[in-house]
Amino acid sequence: MTAELLAADLRDRYPLLVGDREVSDGDMMAAIAPGTGETVAEVPLADAAVVDRAVGAAAEAQPAWAALSAAERGRYLRDLADAVRSQAERLARIDAMDSGNPVAAMRNDVAYGADALDYFAGIARELHGKTLPASANSLHLTLREPYGVVARILPFNHPLMFTLFHSAAPLAAGNTVVVKAPDQTPVSPLEVAYLAAEVLPPGVLTVLTGNGATTGEALVAHPGISRIGFTGRGTTGLRVMEAAAASGRVKHVTVELGGKNPLLVAPDADPAFVADQAVGGMNFESSQGQSCGSTSRLYAPAHLHDEIVDAVAARLDQIRVGDPLDTATTMGPLVSEPQLSRVQGYVESGQTEGARMIRGGGAPKGAPKGGYYLAPTLFDRVEPGHTIAAEEIFGPVLSVLEWRDRDDLIAQANATRYGLTANIITNDLDWAMDAARRVQAGCVWINGRGQHFLETPFGGYKDSGLGSEGSMESLLSYTRTKVVHVLDIGARQ
Predict the structure, then answer these.
(1) Confidence (pLDDT) at 7
(2) Which member of 256, 285, 392, 402 is catalytic?
(3) Which positions of the chain have pLDDT values less than 70?
(4) Antiparallel, parallel or unpaired: β 443-446 and 421-425
(5) Is 443 a catalytic residue?
(6) Domain boundaries defined on the chain
(7) Where does 200-354 have alpha helices with state H?
(8) 292 assigned to active site
(9) pLDDT at 488
(10) For strand 421-425 and strand 418-419, is the pairing parallel, antiparallel, or unpaired?
(11) 103 φ, ψ to 5°?
(12) How far apart are alpha carbons 142 and 119 in whole angstroms?
């Protein structure tokens, strides 16, 4: 991570843009590069007063924004997408520095975020109500109207992409948006805010930095916020819902939370293909396993178990851990020192409880000094009762469990509080569809590695969340339904 590159891409201090004004007074927070552990910039810690100003500016801008046609709002979003693409390489480097994710993966994130703006700009024209034949002589119709000011609270693992993706649907629907950037990765979202200020009217999209206790809680409790979208850890999601309820106002809250996702391998699977899908599904090479969709439980059939473990271990040996700004790096550091310590605690738990560590478990050889690096870690002989098989680790730790009975396999896959995703590997369509129907997960991939498509919703069962992101479902969720009755048409003529 060269000083020259950082100097070219970063500011020393990042002000907030609230309406048409810069805000940089008050307490500041350090933005730390996880690749080196060094402070690279300072960002504001937005307190309740700043939150109030931001929501006020968004509320002032919202009526005019909603009054635009869907096509006009779409043009603004496409202009923002073009602005993002015009700085794609610079933004990818900043995002890699900010998150620790490899720069190659962050190029994909920038592209996906821009595509999300284009997608929602297009389908906003399909946002319409219905006419209903409720009576013979009257007209009954529904309208779709925006909530007003929407709060979006983001996780740290894909800061730039989530700022764009999670803002696109509410903006397209006619809301204005206030984003709470992640504590650990505040710089990328602010860079998006600066681009947005050049394209969108003031107050339409605001990004605030700060911690959850100060900034997040003030935003969730603000009376000007009636719609909240949260993505992150389950315990934090519960606090968001509690704080929203405690505000004394009724707020529509959706939460996309964690996962302990199974990878179900059928008896006919090819071990080499399984290994490739397992490493891809674990997101080792895009976010160091720090993903709610990571397939951290690999269920291998007994007769293929040893071959699969060997193939996965060999595939992990191909991963190059290092500086996230080095184009040769395929896996970067974890996002922070507390996150590294948390994941190391799970590694120790796996060893203590009797699982066999095949790869990793410590700092990788040759990793840059000062960064929060952990080698990709593989555990075998994991039992369902082990902590690493039950709890979301959110790090580069993959567990292999052996199965012999198909019904027991499905029961084990479902024996978790989570239900976000599941992956199935087989060439037997009957086996695949039976497993897909029986597994308790909101998203299932067959012979895939968890690819996301803008046209399809993404959301989980059980403690993995409420609501969906992506697709028309997401756009509709940022609108309210109004019913209009025109009664007794012609009766007074």
Answers:
(1) 54
(2) 256
(3) 1-8, 491-493
(4) parallel
(5) no
(6) 3-257+464-481, 262-457
(7) 217-221, 234-246, 271-281, 284-287, 305-316, 337-352
(8) yes
(9) 87
(10) unpaired
(11) -60, -30
(12) 24
322 HSE (CA, 13 A, CB side): 13
Are 420 and 261 a contacting pair, CB within 8 Å? yes
d(CA 223, CA 208): 17
Q: What DSSP element (H or E) covers 85?
A: helix 70-86
Strands 149-153 and 227-231, bridge-based pairing: parallel
In angstroms, the CA 151 to CA 228 distance is: 5
**What CA–CA distance (Å, rounded) separates 120 from 82?**
14
Encoded tokens for 451: 């690819």
Block residue for tokens 């003030």:
218
| Paired residues of 400 in beta bridges | 298
Residue 145's alpha-carbon distances to 52, 85, 127, 223, 470, in angstroms, are 24, 30, 9, 19, 19
Kindly name the residue from 42, 292, 392, 443 that is annotated as catalytic.
Answer: 292
**Tell me, what amino acid is at 373?**
Y
pLDDT on residue 8? 61
Q: CATH assignment of 3-257+464-481, given 3.40.50.970, 3.40.50.300, 3.40.605.10, 3.50.50.60?
A: 3.40.605.10
CB 180 within 8 A of CB 152: yes
**Pairing of the two strands 16-18 and 21-23:** antiparallel
Distance of CA 351 to the CA centre of its chain: 30
| Domain 262-457 is found in CATH 3.40.309.10 | yes
120, 352, 355, 370 from 473: Cα distances, Å: 11, 44, 42, 43
The residue whose two tokens read 């779709």 is 144
pTM above 0.90, yes or no: yes
What is d(CA 46, CA 210) in angstroms, rounded to the nearest whole number?
Answer: 5
Looking at residue 87, its pLDDT comes to: 97
Do 3-257+464-481 and 262-457 agree at the fold level? no
Between vectors from CA 191 to CA 190 and to CA 193, what angle results, nearest 5°? 60
